[in-house]
Task: inverse folding
């Protein structure tokens, strides 16, 4: 199979960018149209559905992608794999839909989640079928190396959902309208995906019977550890929503989901790295290049910490401004859980590249154990705190659960065979965050106009943060210019020249001058921030 891994990675990451942008635009719109209570019901339903679909689709989607990619020499291998998993997808989708209908009709759903949700679960039963074939076709195309088709289908799914759901909800269809958007979008993607698969392998393979030597048992038992890992990760994402719906009113669930949505924006860069590292580190593991893996892991952790921390500090400083502007005044109660979620979101961001590198080796026992430990802590704390403290309890429990992912996966990484802390400089990165937070928060408090604060604080805050990172040694002086050297000229060429100058500075004279300048600037910013903080935030610059 001839394909460029790099182009596949670019396709995946590009699709993630587009989906993130569409999600960032559509989520506050749906929140405003539905209102906090209905948005809470909608978020709860999607969380239940996501957990349920793990058992319906994970074995199908991951299996078809893996075995198609192997491209074995057996006769009609691709046709038999596509046909085998197509039959399995039909069987599991049918069983999953019937089970959901029976559970709803027999009152099990009412017993578990309360009355008033029955109609929604009937819609989810239909969505089980369409979502199954949407995901099956996308993963089949990925197994053939056709990310240029599979990733645009992911974008189409998101855009079609918005195009259908937003008009229906605005016309008063409520949660049913939003679910109908998912139903229509997944049906559209499934149909187009099946057509694309048929162009590669005839779907008549559904009726073909492979030989007795065809590895049916291996295919059925494959991925049990991956399914366990996905289930544990999904529990971290969704168990707080499910439990909050059980113990609090839907409005609290809606506002908590709004807070989660903003906190999860911090994961974009780590998620992109995770996508790339599963592919790129497999070769390093196969060549037993452990030192390079540790260097890559620790440097990535350092960059991830700094990039995620500056986003977290900025979001925390602007929370009072950003939340009402983004979601509306009704979402003001989401501010407190957002602030509580940010530390944990940072920890989870750090865990993601570590997990990806561990997956690259293919040994999932320790990553599953690490994720399981974090999921258990998350579950126990949510059970203990949500009934008493509601949204705040869910945020504290989830933040601790997220943060524990970093601790447990550092332990897992050592057992897998690499050290993600070798050059992570976590102490210096943490000091950078604390020092930069003072002037960033002060600047945010000093700007009275909300929109002006949103425009000014992020770029200025980023500059302040980078300055402190260079000052305390969380970043080497040449590293920012290494990134800038990738920009178009004249910026790229000038940054490259400065990078070379700093790297070749054997006597350290240029570096010492640079750090002295940063020390004066950083001290001035810190003193100014502390002084304004002592005087009070009543001083407004604009």
Result:
């Amino acid at each position: 199979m001839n394909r460029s891994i790099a182009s596949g990675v670019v396709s995946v990451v590009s699709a993630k960018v587009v989906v993130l942008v569409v999600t960032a635009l559509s989520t506050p719109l749906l929140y405003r149209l539905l209102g906090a209570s209905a948005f809470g019901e909608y978020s709860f339903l999607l969380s239940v559905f996501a957990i349920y679909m793990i058992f319906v689709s994970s074995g199908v989607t991951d299996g078809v992608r893996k075995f198609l990619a192997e491209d074995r020499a057996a006769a009609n291998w691709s046709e038999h794999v596509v046909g085998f998993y197509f039959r399995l997808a039909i069987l599991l989708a049918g069983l999953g839909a019937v089970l959901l209908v029976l559970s709803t009709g027999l009152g099990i759903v009412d017993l578990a989640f309360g009355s008033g949700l029955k109609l929604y679960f009937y819609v989810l039963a239909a969505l089980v079928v369409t979502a199954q074939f949407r995901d099956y076709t996308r993963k089949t195309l990925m197994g053939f190396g056709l990310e240029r088709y599979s990733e645009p289908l992911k974008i189409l799914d998101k855009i079609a959902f918005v195009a259908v759901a937003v008009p229906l909800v605005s016309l008063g269809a409520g949660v049913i309208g939003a679910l109908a958007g998912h139903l229509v979008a997944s049906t559209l993607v499934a149909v187009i995906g099946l057509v694309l698969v048929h162009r590669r392998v005839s779907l008549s393979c559904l009726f073909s019977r492979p030989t007795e030597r065809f590895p049916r048992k291996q295919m059925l038992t494959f991925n049990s550890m991956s399914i366990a890992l996905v289930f544990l990760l999904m529990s971290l994402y969704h168990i707080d929503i499910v439990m909050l719906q059980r113990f609090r009113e839907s409005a609290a669930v809606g506002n908590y989901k709004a807070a989660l949505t903003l906190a999860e924006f911090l994961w974009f860069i780590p998620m992109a790295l995770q996508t790339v590292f599963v592919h790129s580190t497999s070769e390093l593991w196969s060549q037993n290049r452990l030192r390079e893996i540790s260097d890559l892991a620790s440097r990535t952790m350092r960059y991830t910490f700094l990039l995620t921390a500056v986003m977290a500090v900025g979001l925390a400083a602007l929370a009072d401004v950003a939340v009402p502007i983004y979601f509306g005044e009704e979402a003001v109660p989401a501010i407190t859980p957002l602030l509580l979620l940010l530390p944990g979101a940072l920890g989870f961001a750090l865990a993601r590249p570590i997990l990806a590198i561990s997956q690259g080796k293919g040994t999932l026992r320790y990553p599953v154990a690490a994720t399981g430990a974090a999921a258990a802590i998350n579950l126990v704390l949510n059970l203990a705190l949500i009934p008493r403290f509601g949204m705040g309890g869910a945020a504290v429990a989830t933040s601790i659960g997220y943060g524990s992912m970093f601790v447990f996966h550092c332990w897992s990484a050592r057992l897998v065979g690499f050290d993600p802390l070798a050059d992570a400089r976590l102490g210096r990165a943490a000091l950078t965050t604390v020092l930069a937070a003072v002037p960033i928060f002060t600047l945010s408090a000093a700007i009275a106009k909300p929109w002006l604060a949103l425009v000014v604080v992020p770029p200025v805050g980023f500059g302040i943060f980078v300055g402190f990172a260079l000052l305390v040694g969380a970043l080497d002086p040449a590293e920012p210019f290494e990134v800038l050297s990738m920009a178009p000229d004249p910026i790229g060429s000038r940054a490259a020249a400065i990078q070379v100058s700093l790297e070749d500075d054997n006597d350290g004279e240029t570096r010492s001058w640079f750090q002295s300048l940063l020390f004066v600037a950083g001290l001035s910013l810190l003193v100014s921030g502390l002084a304004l903080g002592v005087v009070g935030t009543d001083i407004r610059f604009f």
Residues 1-5, 534-539 have pLDDT under 50 and may be disordered. The two ends are 60 Å apart (CA to CA). Residues 1-222 form one domain.
